[in-house]
Amino acid sequence: MHTHILQFRTRYAAALGALLALALLGVMVFLLTSLVTPSRAAVLTEDARHELVFYELSPLGEAGGYMMPASCPSGYVESGPHAWRQTGSQVIGWGRRQTTRITETYSAPCTAAAAPTLSLTANPSSISYNSASTLSWSSANATSCTASNGWSGGKALSGSQSTGALTSSRSYTLSCTGAGGTVTRSVTVYVAAAPAMTSINATCSADGNTVSANWSATNATSYNLRVDNQSNPWKGACNVAQYPGDVCADGYGSTSWSAGGAQGNTYNVWVHACVAGYCSSPISRQVTCTPPTPTLTFTGNPTSVTYNTASTLSWSSTNVTSCTASGAWSGSKAVSGSQSTGALTTTPNTYTLTCTGPGGSITRNVTITIPAPTLSFTGNPTSISNGGASTLTWSTANATSCTASGAWSGSKAVSGSQSTGAITTTPNTYTLTCTGPGGSITRDVTVTIPAPTLTIKANPTVVGYGGASTVTWSTTNATACTASGDWTGNKAVSGSQTMSNIIKTPNTYSMTCTGPGGSVTRIANATTGGTSGTSVTIPAPTATLQVRVNGGAWTTAAQTIEPTDTINLQWGSTNASTCNAGGFTAGTTSGIATAVDEPAPGTTKTYTVQCPGATGTSPANASVDVTTRSRLPTLTSSSLIVTSGSTATLTYDLNSNPSCTFDTTDTTLNNVVVSTNGAKSTGQITKQTVYTLECPGGNATIIINIEGDIREQ
Predict the structure, then answer these.
(1) Are strands 542-549 and 567-574 parallel, antiparallel or unpaired?
(2) Rounded CA gap, 453 and 518, in Å?
(3) CA–CA dist 53, 69 (Å, integer)
(4) What residues form DSSP beta bridges with 147?
(5) Is 466 helix (H, G, I), strand (E, B) or coil?
(6) Which of 230, 365, 386, 430 has the most CB atoms less than 10 A away?
(7) Taking Cα atoms as reference points, which of 387, 522, 504, 392 lies closest to residue 457?
């Protein structure tokens, strides 16, 4: 707790000094509390003192001075009673000018002031366009309140106030102040978007007696609806008294409207979207209620009648008041009904019906016909042999007469049959035209003598060189045949002939046969003959060449042999006149060669055979490769240069050769046969000597020279 102190000082005292000052203390207290004024600003010390100074007190009782009112510092309030106490006195001056200064302190305790509180609300906080909200507030420990932002001015410490109609969102701020400080609160009132029309549609019912409208909008709670019947349009503002049947509705609560309307009237419809007394710009539609279009169903049953029979006409309509017949009938007709045409003898007969109503007229037609006659006309058979006949048969419907033309003539019954008689030419077309009330019809029948047929084949169609084939043929409707190609001359209309010693290829045997119906050409083949192709052929020659090693199996695969192996060759052929060999001797179409020149070690040899065939074919070729492995021995000497009369040691490796023979001028080793790897000593060497080791797989040679007599090796 803090204290605030009232301190005063005397400036002048009476001659009586301190006693008089004490006697006047009570008066001073009174004066101090009611007459003094502040002399200077208060000074806040550590103990929260405030000084009150009284300056003048004369000996005659004249008083004057200044006092600073006692108060707690900012943020504090008095929390107890005040009390006086003397804190000092002092005599100042001398003689008659002597004054006694007395100091007293008037103090009371201070405590920290409570901070103000404030509540500010808006109800409702969200409103529709052009509506208001109520602001409410209450405070505690405050002495004043001030509004800002969306409102202004001083406000009571508690209360409420309308925002007024708002068209946009707004924030409101209130600040309240007390001894304990200032508190500020804000609240926002949110305003919905303005109402707006989004769509409108206006229609009339199908019968034209009802006009309707429907619409949609956003943020609207009601609508201003205007409907103007253009049969008596407005000449000023909307006024239902002046214009009965129109609509002038404000605050209309639905999004649809309908009313009875007279056919042929046009309506203008306007709608505004509204909320809280505010309405948007309107949107509008115009609709005309036209009378319904008439409909008419008009049929005839049947629509196709036989001569001198009738059909029944039937009709029905909607939205009409009268009907009138025209065309094949006439007169006024009921809006629905049926009527017979009566017996019909002409065709076509078109009946027209026109029906009229408030919405206009409609016309429909029905055509009744007597059908054209039908005719079935056939010939049996339509293909005959030379001199044969065919029977013509016909029948009609809706015909009264028939007339023949083409290959026959004259009037004919509407149905019947007749023979053509013997036919020796081709083609023969018979025409029949039949007529009736519904028109005419014509049909044709063609009777022909067919072209001849020819079947020719060769057996076999593939023969060996110098072989034979038999050609066989047969015909129908043919009187003569002629051969061509690889045979010639006139031939019977059927028969066979053998073709011998065929040595060329291909061989084409063609035949053309003629009859009353024409001619036909065929080429012999393996079946019934055709218009193209090779009839008898000698196939191209074939050749084979096989090898066997040491009497083993025959094969066409390439072989690799040892130098000591023995090979044989076997060849064969088909459709060949002979065979020629390469690398061995042949001369016949097949055989086995036992004496074959084999390839040298380390080389490959290709053996071939070529076998020509019949004229017109290419020779056949075959080949096989044989490779002899290389089996070279090695031969080395302990020394290639020796003194005359000395010997050397020869070391050899046969490299799998079964045996090898030395060939040299050295009689010690000449013709010596070795069958395993090893070493041999030479005889005495007195001159340059050549040593050769001869093996089936190859040879090895070295030269030993005499020291001092080296020659080129």
Answers:
(1) antiparallel
(2) 10
(3) 10
(4) 153, 174
(5) coil
(6) 430
(7) 522
Residue spans of alpha helices (H) in 500-630: none
Rounded Cα–Cα distance for residues 412 and 459 (Å):
56
Do 389 and 422 contact (CB within 8 A), yes or no? Answer: yes
What are the strands, taking DSSP E only, across 150-221? 153-155, 158-162, 170-178, 181-191, 196-204, 210-218
Q: Which tokens is 4 given?
A: 């605030």
pLDDT in tens, 373-392: 999 999 999 999 878 899 99
Q: Is 331 left (phi over 0), alpha (psi -120 to 50) or beta?
A: left
Per residue in 22-72, pLDDT tens?
333 333 333 333 333 333 333 333 333 333 333 333 344 434 443 444 566
- Residue 618: HSE in the Cβ half-sphere, 13 Å Cα cutoff: 2
Q: What is the dihedral of CA 260, 264, 268, 271, to 10 degrees?
A: 30
Most distant CA atoms of the chain, gap in Å: 198
Q: What are the tens digits of pLDDT across the range 140-173?
A: 999 999 999 999 999 999 999 999 999 999 999 9
CA–CA distance, 517 with 529 (Å, rounded to integer): 20
pLDDT at residue number 39: 32
Classified as helix, coil or strand, 672 is coil
How many Cβ atoms sit within 10 Å of the Cβ of residue 514? 19
How far is 293 from 461, CA to CA, in rounded Å? 85
| Structure tokens given for 287 | 């609709």
Question: What integer pLDDT is reported at residue 110 of this predicted model?
Answer: 74
- The amino acid sitting at 10 is T
Instruction: Enter the tokens of residue 348.
Output: 């076509």
Q: Hey, what domains does the chain have and what are their CATH numbers?
A: 2-112 (no CATH), 117-191 (2.60.40.2470), 196-288 (2.60.40.10), 295-365 (2.60.40), 374-447 (2.60.40), 453-523 (2.60.40), 542-628 (2.60.40), 634-706 (2.60.40.10)
Assigned token pair, 468: 């034979």
Give the angle 252-254-258 at the CA atoms, nearest 5°.
Answer: 95
What does the chain come to in residues? Answer: 713
What is the rounded distance in angstroms from the CA atom of residue 665 to the CA atom of residue 691?
Answer: 8
Where the chain has pLDDT below 50, the residues are 1-69, 526-529, 531-534, 713
Give the other-Cβ count within 10 Å of 154's Cβ.
Answer: 8
- The token pair at 338 is 């049926």
How many Å is the Cα radius of gyration of the chain? Answer: 73
